[in-house]
Amino acid sequence: MSTIDRREVLALSLVGALGIPAARAQGLPAGYPDSYRDTIAQAEREGSLLIYSIMSPENWRPVIESFNRLYPKIKVETLDLPASRESFERYLAERSTNSRSADLIATADPGGWIDFQARGEILDYVSPEAKAWPDWSKPFPGLYTVSSDPMAFIWNNTLVPEGKRPKSFAELVALTTANERAWRNKITSYGAHQVTFGYGINYAFVKKHGEKAWAWFAELAKLQPRFERSGGPMTEKVTAGEYATGWFVSAITFWPRLADPARARILGWSFIADGQPMVLRGVAIPKGSKNLNAAKLMLDFIISEEGQRAFGRGGLTPARPGVKPGDGIRHTYSSIAEIVGEQNMIYVGYDADALKDYDAFLARWKQTFNIR
Amino acid sequence: MTLAPHASPAALPDGRTDALPRPRAGRDTAIQYGLALLTVVLVAAPLVPVLYQSVLDRALYDTGQSFTLANFGRLFRAEGFGLVIWNTFVFAGLTTLISQTLGTLAAVLFGRTDMPGARVFGELFLWPIYLSALVLSFGWYTVYGPAGYLTLIAQDWLGGAPWDLYSLPGMAMIAGVSQAPVAYIYCMSSATITDPSLEEAARVAGAGTFRTLRRITLPLLMPAIAYSAVLNFTVGLELLAIPLVFGDPAGITVLTTFLYNNGVASARPDHGLVATAAVLMLAVVCVLVWLQGRLLGNTRRFVTLGGKATRPRPFRLDRLRWPLFAVSALYIAATVVAPIGALLLRAFTSLLSPMVPLAEVLTTANFTNMAEYPVYPRSIWNSFLISALGGVIATALIALIAVIVLRSEFRWRGALHYVALFPRAVPGVVAGIGFFYAFALVPGLGGLRNTIWILIIAFTMHYIPVGLGAVAPMLMQMSPDLDRAARVQGADWWTASRRIVLPLMRPALVACFTILFITFFKEYTTAIFLFAPGSEVIGTTLLQAWTQGEVGLVSALATIQVLVIGTCVTLARAVFGVRLHG
User: Is B546 on the interface with A (CB under 8 A)?
Assistant: First the structure.
């Protein structure tokens, strides 16, 4: 169970309470236009905000707490949906009947975002924070990035002896090949055939490594991996020993759990030196948003330095360049770039080819892993 | 109360029972038509949109759809769909086989023999049916999963566990155990109505215990076995939790997980395919329910309290008494005590692994976490509200349906009865998908989507037949002379029903409410497609927490569910003397 250290939250709230008012003496974040005051006033009149996401309440809590210190009059509700695509589906269904739906969508589903953009459902909103972000993080007008979360290796320390723990994909393949019989059904990852999340990661990985990636997959396939839909069960099952190791496991699902010392002794992890997938989580205001101004405030806050730090404390990996680890943040885009090198990072982003190649890729994936 | 098995009000060809005065027929007619209409709307609401979506070329809520039959072709050509069908039938078939075998054995052993502790075992044997398959799966996972406690012990001793839950037989084992109480209940109630003189005759003729069992008792149980087998097969087809928890990681897909994967969890939700598969499932279950009706005919319904002079004599086990006692104790320990116990233990630990000493991981953090995030207390509260409020509303509706169907001269009462029983043929997932579409389709209903009302409506619809099952037998036992007396005095049908029939039905209504409370509290499949922010229930948060890998939270929530249902069952039986099954 992931928890945020209570003292940490208290300490940070204190810092926030002392530090923020000075910077916002005018009631406006630094560098924001004066007209933003109207947005705030209207948002407070709206008074509520509904967010659809695939992030859990723990991920959101520091963000909402910090946000509510700035804008206490806005009641924020989040709905974390089990599948990344569901945010869009729910929104579209609800919009067609004019019932209440999301004011803001935050989900890691590049293909879903591409479709959503093609439907013309993304509000073209230029955030005052946009300047601070590089182009890869702003694929379409109005779509911004919440976090860039690394997909890492995890293993069970009692099953994978020290010195054998993989640091690169090549090492993972060597390790599993050496344990071929013992580890049958005991390795795990996301299935490209099950969730878009898994498809995006594997597609991007193959795009980087080409045939070598397929050859690696073929080696792993001999152990008959079991595919899970999200990182939580992978973490839980590797800890329990059901799986020995997992690859491309979303770091945000296991970092918070390492706060538990008993678990930290069992669960080991590593970045992937020869190709570190980074999943970009998008955030945008859908055109049907009923609380448009509240949504703008939240979006601006999420991509602001302070909002990024808050999501970092909630377990996500801040994507805004320049944000550094510390204060309860384990890693950020910048710190991972320093460790694995920016050239080894694989953006799981908004690749139109990924939509086009879906069927062909899946066919080969299923054949490789013998999935019927 | 007297027993009047054949006292159907339809005694005269003109539709009237007697030459009764018919005062103020207008009010009666209005109530009867109104309620019948409500029932029809309720039952049709989820079905019409599913059927409609299945012949559309794109999502219901999209613009510019046109009619097509291509979805059906696409479904059957869909890669791996043949395997899905095969898996579904193997899973349902094995589940039925296991549950019927266990249930029948238990009914004979606990109900008909002189085995020590038989009554207590019989009570414990029923427990899985009070809990949702979802909660049971988590319990089984903790004990018998690949890294479960007993699995690891078995690996140490035997070099490998003899079971694998991530397989069709493994899944069917869990489902079979959780459905065995159904077979047990049917066999037990059948055993109490069979004529003991047949067994006596066999004994007098010199047949021993096992010969009597084989030649007389079991054949007499056959209708009950066949009937509950069809029921369990249907449940096997509809089960979502077990295939989702154990089948999915191993790549085993059944029809429900196919629907879940393509409807809720998919990268590319295909509404046409989902609706078409739902229609297919609906069709299969319809056939099965029809078959069930045929197997039993209409005879059983009327035999409730049998007028028998003697109780059947228990079979004597002699030397086998204690060995069978041991086997039964082991069974109960392995299938009821261990999974629930492990679940409770997991709720109070941060992780459960033989690699870590228990003392290091004991914690109440799962419960404090549960209390801290609003969604969890809210889902518990919502489940309460839905079960209590929904239970009352559903009971009221069901009572009125029963009174109209069984105690009125309403012209369409036969049709109404049929409609009211139809939801038996609607799997929970299909009802959920259907209501989801219905609420997406009908303007003005959107406002209900984020409230618990949508769940109350869906649950009520889905469980009308269950409620009727609790109410109807009593109504059929009650002599129509009572309300007829009122009618003779000049009361109209509504007054007679309100002042005479319904108050007399009070015990049946309490039973109906209790059964619905428990059922609503553990229901999750119908809710999966319907819950929204603010209307989460324990079942949906359990599944969400599971997919997030929050096993501690799952266990804490499951513990709450077990506690509430346990308290409810105990109270209902101790205070109200409610029979929760049969």
Answer: yes
Write out the two tokens for A350. Answer: 């908004």
The DSSP 8-state label assigned to residue A135 in this structure reads G
Percentage of residues in chain A with pLDDT exceeding 70? 92
Position A31 confidence tier, pLDDT thresholds 50, 70, 90: confident
* pLDDT at A100 exceeding the cut of 70: yes
Residue B8 neighbours by CB under 8 Å, 6+ apart: B406
Average pLDDT over chain A, rounded to whole? 88
Region of residue B189 (phi > 0: left; psi between -120 and 50: alpha; otherwise: beta): alpha
- Joined together, the tokens standing for residue B94 give 């094995």
Looking at the partner chain, which of A86, A231, A262 has a beta carbon nearest the beta carbon of B350? A262
B56 touches chain A (CB under 8 A): no
CA atoms of A246 and A237, how far apart (whole Å): 10
- pLDDT at residue B25, as a whole number: 60
CA B227 – CA B298 distance, rounded (Å): 12
DSSP state of A154: E
Low-confidence spans in chain B with pLDDT less than 50: 1-13, 15-16, 298-308, 582
Question: Are B446 and A97 in contact, with CB atoms under 8 Å apart?
Answer: yes
pLDDT, residue B579, reads: 67
Q: What is the mean pLDDT of residues A322-333?
A: 91
CB contact under 8 A, A226 and B360: no
Reported as a single tens digit per residue, the pLDDT across B480-500 is 888 888 888 888 888 888 888
**pLDDT for residue A259:** 85
A11-49 exposure pattern, b = at least 16 Cβ within 10 A, e = fewer: ebeeebeeeeeeeeeeebbeebeeebeebbeebeebeeb
Residues in B closer than 8 angstroms to A56, CB to CB, are: 548, 550
Q: Collect all residues of chain B within an 8 Å Cβ-Cβ radius of residue A93.
A: 59, 61, 436, 440
Given this model, what pLDDT does residue B517 score?
A: 94
The span from the CA of A365 to the CA of B194, in Å, is: 59
Concatenated DSSP letters for A191-219?
A: -TTT-HHHHHHHHHHHHHHTHHHHHHHHH
pLDDT tens for each residue of B257-305: 988 888 766 656 678 888 898 899 999 988 888 887 777 654 444 333 4
Rounded Cα distance between B451 and B534, Å, is 6
Q: Structure tokens of A161?
A: 């002896």
Task: Lowest mean pLDDT of A106-120, A136-150, B214-228, name the range.
Answer: B214-228
- DSSP-derived secondary structure letter, B468: H
The alpha carbon dihedral of B404, B406, B407, B408 has a sign of positive
| Burial class for B256, CB neighbours closer than 10 Å (0-12, 13-18, 19+) | buried
Task: With a cut of 80, say whether residue A333 has pLDDT above it.
Answer: yes
Report yes or no: B37 and B45 within 8 Å, Cβ to Cβ.
no
In angstroms, rounded to a whole number, what is the distance separating the alpha carbons of residues A269 and A258? 10
Q: Could A97 and B547 be called an inter-chain contact, meaning their C-beta atoms sit closer than 8 Å?
A: no
Shortest CB distance from A239 goes to which of B261, B353, B450? B353
Identify all chain B residues contacting A80, using CB atoms and an 8 Å cutoff: 544
Cβ contact A250:A149 at 8 Å? yes
B109: β partners = none
Inspect the interface and report whether the beta carbons of A89 and B546 lie closer than 8 Å. no
Which ipTM was obtained for this model? Answer: 0.78
Q: Angle at the Cα of B393 (from B392 to B396), degrees rounded to 5?
A: 85
Binary contact (A262, B375; C-beta < 8 A): no
Q: How many angstroms separate the CA of residue A179 from the nearest CA in chain B?
A: 17
Q: How far is residue B125 from each of residues A187, A196, A300, B96, B416, measured CA to CA in Å?
A: 37, 43, 57, 17, 36
**Amino acid found at B483:** D
Is the CB of residue B321 less than 8 Å from the CB of residue B110?
no
B68 has a chain A CB within 8 A of its CB: no
Domains in chain A with CATH codes: 37-148+279-348 (3.40.190.10), 150-278+353-369 (3.40.190.10)
